[in-house]
Please model this.
Amino acid sequence: MKRYIYTMVFGLMLSACTNSENKGLIISVLEDITETHLVAQPDAETITALYNFDTNLWQSATFRYGRINSLMHNSREVVTLKGQQVLLGNELERRQLVAGFNMDVSALLNKPKDSTTYQHSSIWLPLAEELKTLQKEDNSQITLYVFSDLRENTSWFSTYRTSDMKLLNNKSETIIELFLAKAKGLTSSENIKVVVVYQPQTITEDEMFQELRMLYTQLFLKLGIDITFIANLNVEAL
Model:
């Protein structure tokens, strides 16, 4: 009888441990490389610190990285670290794996940027595409960081066209519906958070960003996905 109780208790402990570790942490970064004035840029040390490995050594971790330019579709690079069970793992080996994961994240973020000159950015479609991919991960805590001023420049909408900006100012609902039509397939998500990181340097930049911030706030309210805006990643804590 005692042996049965011990076995049952151990099984419950192992099950609880496994369930805890299966809920991983995914961080995705989209970096706008078309603008030279962007002050806030992804930093490897800051990004890896967001995983909180000091307190969550055994969790699964995924890092996704993509660069935003004038193209609507860009490749994504991924680094993964599988979760392990505390009771069955070796802490020294685990810390070595975590160190390797951090190094791979750093290598991705520090890769030389494409020297090709791009004329402004396609922001919304790459962002929506990334969110659709992330929504397939239903057992993870997910944060998507977008390092960009959000200035769209595509055939269907451009912040550099006076007519489009007038429409945004006077008939914002029309522009909202236009953006939502480009994001078909996105659904409400409680486990995904979007964080836009941008620090304006002039009054003109600040005024433009405030308009786009209002647009994105309304867009994500309708999509049912949490979004916040910060000037520096250091002030953001998961």
Q: What stands out?
A: The longest helix spans residues 2-22. Residues 2-21 have pLDDT under 50 and may be disordered. The beta strands are 24-32, 61-68, 77-81, 140-147, 189-197, 225-230.
